[in-house]
């Protein structure tokens, strides 16, 4: 479990083919200093297991599903990534509950530039849009953000200068894809709504 408060920007040091997946090697001294093999770390919001450590680098394995569903499949050597270690019992929760299980991707379609402040607009699949509400929470590349505008296939977030500076979002451009995790509570509400339309099970007929 994570909070969506990015701890550091890592750098993609190597991408090693390990069919059918890859090994991602991420360099970041602060996070690496307090991380060990088998720990969970959110990389651009995607929960991955540390499978190797060497100096200031951490190695992760990403399989076909992870590479297809997230933007980790688009990383190249040198790409920055958002990093957050898993929450420890008793930690303060500054963002919102984030599982690290990516629901899909959104595409940055518009940027309103207000100097040091930015409003980002993303197109998103409708099945994810229905789990979003204005003033609710969403994790974008692992960053906990408050939703501003929510339409049937679009949402917006307002980014403060600090967030733009310390996360990958500050370097995002029109057309970039970002990882999306909707709020956990919204998933259960959607499930309950959908369940009302299910046909009766054979046992209840």
Account of the protein in words:
There is one protein chain. This protein has two domains: 8-85, Elongation Factor Tu (Ef-tu), domain 3 (Beta Barrel), CATH 2.40.30; 104-193, Elongation Factor Tu (Ef-tu), domain 3, CATH 2.40.30.20. The model has no long low-confidence stretch (mean pLDDT 94). Strands 1-2-5-4-3-6 form a six-stranded antiparallel barrel. Strands 7-8-11-10-9-12 form a six-stranded antiparallel β-barrel. It is 16% helix and 41% strand. A hairpin with a 3-residue loop joins strand 10 and strand 11. The longest helix is centred in the last third of the chain and has 12 residues, at 184-195. The chain is built from five helices and twelve strands. The protein has 205 residues and is of the alpha+beta class. The chain is globular, with a radius of gyration of 18 Å. The chain has helices at residues 29-33, 64-69, 126-129, 161-166, 184-195, and strands spanning 8-18, 21-27, 40-43, 46-54, 57-62, 80-85, 104-114, 117-123, 137-140, 143-150, 154-159, 177-182.
Short recap of the structure:
With 205 residues, the protein is an alpha+beta fold. It contains five helices and twelve strands. It folds into two domains: 8-85, Elongation Factor Tu (Ef-tu), domain 3 (Beta Barrel); 104-193, Elongation Factor Tu (Ef-tu), domain 3 (Beta Barrel).
């Amino acid at each position: 479990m994570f909070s969506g408060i990015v701890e550091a920007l890592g750098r993609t040091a190597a991408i090693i083919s390990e069919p059918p997946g890859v090994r991602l090697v991420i360099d970041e001294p602060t996070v690496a200093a307090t991380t060990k093999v088998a720990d969970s770390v959110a990389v651009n919001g995607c929960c991955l297991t540390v499978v190797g450590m060497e100096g200031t680098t951490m190695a992760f394995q990403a399989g076909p599903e992870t590479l297809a569903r997230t933007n980790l499949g688009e990383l190249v050597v040198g790409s920055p990534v958002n990093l957050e270690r898993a929450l420890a019992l008793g930690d303060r929760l500054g963002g919102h509950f984030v599982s690290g299980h990516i629901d899909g991707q959104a595409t940055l379609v518009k940027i309103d530039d207000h100097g040091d402040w930015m409003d980002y607009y993303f197109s998103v699949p409708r099945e994810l849009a229905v789990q979003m509400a204005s003033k609710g929470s969403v994790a974008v590349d692992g960053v906990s953000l408050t939703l501003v505008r929510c339409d049937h296939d679009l949402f917006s977030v307002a980014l403060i200068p600090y967030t733009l500076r310390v996360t990958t979002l500050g370097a995002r451009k029109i057309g970039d894809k970002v990882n999306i995790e909707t709020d956990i509570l919204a998933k259960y509400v959607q499930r309950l709504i959908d369940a009302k339309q299910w046909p009766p099970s054979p046992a209840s007929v």
